[in-house]
Design a protein that fits this description.
Layout (H helix, E strand, L loop, with lengths): L2 E9 L2 E6 L8 H15 L3 E8 L3 E8 L2 E8 L9 H7 L22 E2 L11 H9 L5 H12 L2 H8 L1
Antiparallel strand pairs: 1-2, 1-3, 3-4, 4-5, 5-6
Helix pairs in contact: 4-5
Length: 162
């Protein structure tokens, strides 16, 4: 399985970002600790984690200094049953709990799950995020690039994806 994960954070009008390895995470706290450490290092009150797993699904995790709980969005909630990292992300709010136990690969239509409003203040509405999640032919990496462009950190993301 090929998984791309990166954390981004604004500091004023400048964004910083770094690719991260999530291979050793066992719990959502491992992810939030990583994000909070980077936020502290970068002097930011907001961090975003983007995950692109196997060009099949993507996730967004948002941590704000004002809210100790992570906000998570999965492009297909059914993957929490099939992918260990998605299972860890689901700890942040019971994602995938209402989804049938069938595999994501057995049905063609993704089922977005989580907090679709987590990017609204950055220019991506809940409806747009849902449309991008289920839009035929749009790869997860392309969705992340669209979000990066709208939010203002495409110039930080692009070199990571080469």
């Amino acid at each position: 399985m090929s998984t791309f994960a990166a954390v981004f954070a604004p500091n004023g009008k400048t964004w910083r970002g770094t690719e991260v390895d999530l291979g050793d995470v066992d719990a959502i706290d491992d992810i939030t600790d990583l994000m909070l450490d980077l936020a502290t290092d970068w002097g930011s009150e907001l961090t975003l984690l983007f995950v692109d797993a196997d060009d099949e699904w993507f996730a967004v995790v948002r941590m704000d200094e004002s809210d100790p709980d992570p906000r998570v969005y999965l492009s297909d909630g059914r993957v929490v049953h099939d992918h260990p990292l998605a299972g860890v992300l689901s700890e942040a709010g019971g994602l995938g709990a209402s989804q049938p136990a069938e595999s994501a690969g057995s049905r063609p239509d993704p089922r977005p799950d989580g907090d679709g409003r987590l990017l609204t203040d950055l220019g991506v509405t809940e409806d747009e995020l849902a449309d991008l999640s289920v839009g035929g032919g749009v790869l997860p990496g392309d969705v992340i690039a669209i979000i990066a462009e709208r939010s203002g950190f495409a110039d930080v993301l692009d070199p990571m994806r080469l």
